[in-house]
Design goal:
single chain, about 625 residues, alpha+beta, Serine Threonine Protein Phosphatase 5, Tetratricopeptide repeat, three-stranded antiparallel sheet, 20 helices, about 40% helix, disordered N terminus
Length: about 625
Amino acid sequence: MKGSSKYIVTASLVFAMVLLLSSCKDFLNPEQELYITEDKLLNDWYEYRSLSMGMYGLQQELVEQLLVLGELRADLLTITPNADPDMVEIYNFNISKENKYASPDNFFKLIAASNNFIRLLEQEHPEVRDLKSAVSNYDRLYGEALCMRAWAYFNAVRIYGKVPFIHESLVTIKEIEDFVNSSGTYIDSVHIVFGRNGYHNDTVKNVNIKLDKQYFSTDLVIDYFTTELEKKVKAVGVNHYINNFDNTWEVTIWNTWAYHALLGQMYLTAGDFVKSASHFEFITNNTTEERRYQLDATFQNYSWRNIFRNVDVKEHIFSIWFNKANFQQNRLQEIFEPIAPHQYMLKPTRAAVLKWESLFDNYTIIEDTNFPWKSRIGNPGMPGDFYRGYGVSYAYVKDENVLSEGSVRNMLLLKREEDMRTAELFTADHDTVVWKYSIGKNTFDQDANFCIYRASGIHLYLAEIYTWWSVMQGGILRNLTTTALSVVNNGAQYNPLSTRPQLGVRGRVGFGGAVDGIKIGNINYVHHPYTNEIVSYFDYSGNLEAKQVYLEDQIIDERARELAFEGERFYDLMRVANRRNDPSFLASRVSAKYPAAMRATIYNYLMNKNNWYINYFE
């Protein structure tokens, strides 16, 4: 990405920006700052666009909060002795209202900005509400704002369990805070504009309106905002490429693909597979020239790490962009790196590391189908996922030096031979580090991009749906578990449609073959994590539901390998636990990362679904 806009936001929603689409490198020149208040705003298109870009600055402010709450409460991330008190509270599930990560303020700011911008567009360009009128850039801005507001509510309700519904007349953070802190009703003075033919040439006045405080549950948020997006949005995302010839702009703003990803994610959370799949399939079955978002060789093997070096429209659907040169940075390197001056406050759990280190490539099984307990490993294969795992998602670091990949390969080979004592010498005194936000970064960059939606995540959502979905074909009810396996392993379900070879989520990193791909059969073997030897098996003969549960478990594990530390892990566990009505699915996985003395306490606490949320609004 060549450039962006600097975002300056005040409580009264004043933004300081001048949009120079013809020269992205000057987009953020501080000398160009110009404060525009509402009474002077909206004189031309660029002022509208500047106001919209300020809202993306508010999304940037949410990144650290989303990552910490979405990962530290789950099973793949834990604290170090350097963790700050707020992180320790989250780790212990003992979160105070003073905790900076618990505060809803950044969500309220984004909702306030969205409310204000939506109201201004409806007032100054009422054609945005006319679904029959020709699509203009104002419609695209309107779609961006509606998506941003829905996304803010959806993420907030996943954190808090319920959120106050913020009336559209509340357009500043102070108004929202006063409303939320009110006893139950709130009197708001709102500027009303009426006019003939939809334009404001008749009436301008202030009236007092009484607002009753309502809290929306997850179901209400999803119902309200999916309906709003489906009924109000004509188009999403301004085309900047025609001005700056930088196609990565498309996926760093809300766009058509991200609109469908958000709707699919909300419907999936609600358990509506049909509607969810329709939006996800809009993305994966697209008929663009290059069939973007199908998983080909673009990010195959070692190229997989390039997903995090740059923004690429074949994988990124919507990413929050940062750039040090334009003074837009985050704290992710500071949180994760043990390299001065960074703090190294959070690190991967042992369970996270095993997701990659316990994968074996190209192994063989000598199988006895009649007596499965006699089945054994022939060739154990090569251990470790080195395309998505070591040196990409995590690393071992000592004295600010990263352990070489060759050393880690040798360590895993020694473990395969059960020489644990020698193997452990390789990582002695090393810190285990989240590395996904350090790839290609210098020490002081602090500007890794943050993916909200990317292609492989959408494919894995679809695999999750297909695991449970059946369709009527030729008068026969057909289960789609085979399709789910194809999505994950090799992309075979797309090949008849595609003009380019498809590889699947695991296939593009070398683990989608006949043996090392995910398999669901009557007999399903359990392997030792270090030697790959068969240690047990499950017999699911004649039990379709057991096979589906097992496949879903494998898909959720695959989401961990593919999407670790990207902010969604806790909600993945919540979604499956709710679908199964089995809180132990979440409780057992999360509690396993705690010291033995804490494990039972955390497990019992998380068996109560109410404790999955930060009860900020109680």
